[in-house]
Amino acid sequence: MGRRWVRAVADSPNTPPLATMLGIALVDVSTGSEYNLLPVYAAGPAIASARGSVRNVFAVGAVAVVLCLLFAWKADRFGELRMTVALTAICYVTLAAAYAARSRRKVERRLVDVRDVARTLEDVLFTPVPPAIGPVRIGASYVSASRATRVGGDLYEVEPCPVGVRLVIADVQGKGLETVQCASVVLTAFREAAPDAGELADVGRRIEAALERKTDGQRFVTGILAQITRDGSLLAFNHGHPPPLLLGHDGTAAFVESDDQVPPFGLTALTGPTDLHDSVTRIPLGVGDRILFYTDGLSEARDTEGAFYPVLQRAAPLLRDGRPEDALTRLRADVAVFTGKAPDDDSALLLVEVRGPLAAPAGGV
Fold first, then answer.
1. What predicted TM-score, i.e. pTM, was given to this entire model?
2. Domain with 260 in it: what CATH number?
3. Last residue of a domain, one of 95, 121, 147
4. Do 182 and 210 belong together in one domain?
5. Which stretches of 280-323 are DSSP H helices?
6. What is the pLDDT along the chain (365 residues), one digit of tens a residue?
7. Structural domain of residue 133, as residue ranges?
């Protein structure tokens, strides 16, 4: 009970201004009437405007007036010009502080509304990734560089489909609300196309078409569109994105480099149509293999000397054991140690593990 009371007093917006005026009163008592500090009590309402409401400011201003009158009477200065000037100063400062508090509260209410809208948008757009789809285990992690929101321009999604499991991880160029809008277009197009599109290349074309229809064409999106097929193969189209990291069940680790990268989403108008079938990367997977998909918030994280995070050397040993989500937690902790600071870029991670062959759906494909 005592601790709660102490915490409540410490958190009260009235504590700093009242403590300040108490300190002024103690100095006033110790220095005597020769150094009357009557105007200094105006500091109380001024400080109250930083955290308190308009009502708090006026309450603290009233306390400042009472203290000013009390110490003017104690010093035999009651009714003198010094007291009048001090009271005038306190009144003016209180009015100015009340205006500042009112303006601050308006801004705070707007920020609360914006954050509520942002969180609602994030909850709708960025739904949790399932921990497993058949024999494919999945771990996901997202860190936003923005303190105001939980997400930014990076995105990921995983969807089951008749031929296996399809996923996308991408990074929208730029920042701001337009970036989130562009990310939502990519996510929506992928969710609509991934479950029933005949081929993985068709999913990419649907994303490209959605960006052309629903955005201003001023942004591009780097990303990887991938599929884990029932026969245990990885198919991937790399649209100008950092290569995924393959962690073999035999202890090997290597980047999955593409022989022919596809231009980023949104640049079709500049590069012309691309035959995605000629650019697919296909590699066989074994039971126990893991693949890390990531955005450049990981690969371009820097230490205090400006060196990039060595994904292959540091991430690979951390991701081999345990559940995928636990492995990503270890990776996040290691990146924080490496950089020694809060993230300055959005970062999305997907870790998938093949635990067995993917069964064919009923009726075949």
1. 0.70
2. 3.60.40.10
3. 121
4. yes
5. 296-299, 316-318
6. 456 655 665 667 778 888 888 888 888 777 766 667 788 888 888 888 888 889 889 999 999 899 888 888 887 778 778 788 888 999 999 999 999 989 988 888 877 766 666 666 666 666 788 999 988 999 999 887 665 555 567 889 999 998 899 999 999 887 766 777 888 889 999 999 999 988 999 999 999 999 888 877 777 899 999 999 988 889 999 999 999 999 999 999 999 998 777 889 888 655 555 556 567 889 999 999 999 999 999 999 999 999 999 999 999 999 999 999 999 999 999 999 999 988 878 889 999 999 876 655 443 33
7. 126-354
- Same-domain check for residues 147 and 272: yes
Structure tokens, 115: 């954050």
Domain boundary among 75, 104, 121: 121
Q: How buried is 177 (Cβ within 10 angstroms: 0-12 exposed, 13-18 middle, 19+ buried)? A: exposed
